[in-house]
Amino acid sequence: MTGYIDSHAHLFSEEFQDDFDAVIQRAKNSDVNRIMIMCTRMDEARRAMAFAAEDPKRYQVAVGIFPDDVDHAEEWYPEFEELIQNPGIAAVGEIGLDYHWVQDKKKEQQELFARQIESAKKVHKPILVHARDAMQDCFDIMKQHQAKGLMHCYSGSAEMAAEFTKMHIYISLGGVITFKNARRAREVCAAIDSSFLLSETDCPYMAPEPFRGTKNEPCRIPLIVAKMAEIRGIPEEDMKQMIYENYDRFLKEPA
């Protein structure tokens, strides 16, 4: 199987309850053949695992305690640790730091992030990292704990992206790269080692142009990959194949 990759899709969020089957079919029709289903609730992860088990090559599942939910960490952690040991969980995420919405719990977020990195390492699974207004702290914690994984919807500089790749951290880009004012995302795409590039939708959020502001879904991935190929000056089919190989490697490396 080859095709497009969506390395970050919230398919089991409430936004897809009414048209889930249609969203899945549109993804297949658009040659989006591998999707990482992101879960931030334990019950959500169990439903996603049951769905993915029907086609495990096409669908992978990740679960993590989101930084905004730091107040629930102690309550949720035992079930989280149990879940990530399951072979049906391919990665731990999305985890990380968010200083935009939760500004008064930075220390607690940092401790939770580090703890989840160590839990992921114990089960030999990569992490998918959310960093909002907290890129340097994310970098420092990941370096200290020798984390393996990817930066989801990367919003930092090309220089910082290069530092992440030196740690063997992948850089995932989404719909923002198609926006007219997305200078930084384009610089990242053009500058970093192509073997660390991945594509994502972050659906139902962050729809690319010309669908900006609408509900996003995996079938929009070709628009993102086409822009990445344009920026790097290579055929779209080559970009598509490269991302597919990168995703395969990303899943296999943390051993």
Report the structural category: alpha/beta
Order of helices and strands: EHEHEHEHEHEHEHEHH
Number of domains: 1
Separation of termini?
23 Å
**What share of residues is helical?**
40-55%
Quick one: biggest sheet? 8 strands, parallel
Can you give keywords for this protein?
single chain, 255 residues, alpha/beta, TIM Barrel, 8-stranded parallel β-sheet, 9 helices, 8 strands, globular
Please tell me about this protein's structure:
The chain has 255 residues and is an alpha/beta fold. It has one domain: Metal-dependent hydrolases (TIM Barrel, Alpha-Beta Barrel), CATH 3.20.20. The chain is 42% helix and 17% strand. It contains nine helices and eight strands. An eight-stranded parallel β-sheet has the order 1-2-3-4-5-6-7-8.
Describe the secondary structure blueprint for this structure.
Blueprint: E1 4-9, H1 20-29, E2 32-39, H2 42-52, E3 59-63, H3 73-84, E4 91-98, H4 106-122, E5 127-132, H5 135-144, E6 149-151, H6 158-166, E7 170-173, H7 183-191, E8 197-199, H8 221-232, H9 236-252
Parallel strand pairs: 1-2, 2-3, 3-4, 4-5, 5-6, 6-7, 7-8
